[in-house]
Amino acid sequence: MIFSYQRVLVLGNGGAGKSTFSVAMGARFCLPVVHLDRIWWLPGWVNRSEEEFDALLFEELEKPAWVMDGNYLRTLPVRLAKTDCAVLLDLSAEECLASIRARVENYRGRSRPDMPEGCPERADGEFEAWIRAYRDETLPQVLRLLNGWDKPWFAFSDRASAYAWLESFENRGGGRLFS
For the domain 7-166, what is the CATH code? Predict the structure, then answer.
């Protein structure tokens, strides 16, 4: 099967694996990857203004091809208007929290690759509370937008199914996702 999408959104809770999945998809299908966290955050965990973020986002959205990961619900309608398909990683809050804790340990004192330099990995109570509330507060809004959208979207409740879906398409990037 040929992967015919050129602009793909990857959505899901914090810790669901959006960035890792996006990088795998980008490598597999020769698509540039855009991490919204790299656009939103400045060094020292200072966020850009919404106006500056929007200008940078719109610049990325006009490009002919990308895999874009991140939540940023405020901009989801605008991103969907420019997207060919969306992937929703719908993992449990407990699995997401476990991933966040492992990520904090793995990148302790350093910025992860999908973040700007100067944003060392962290997880605080506010972020953990957001992850726990995602299914009740954010996901219904995301699903409402996706269900009203006229393009394909794919939801996965575990990472293995999402990666198996990627493997089901012809590889244009030259490598396997799993060894």
Answer: 3.40.50.300
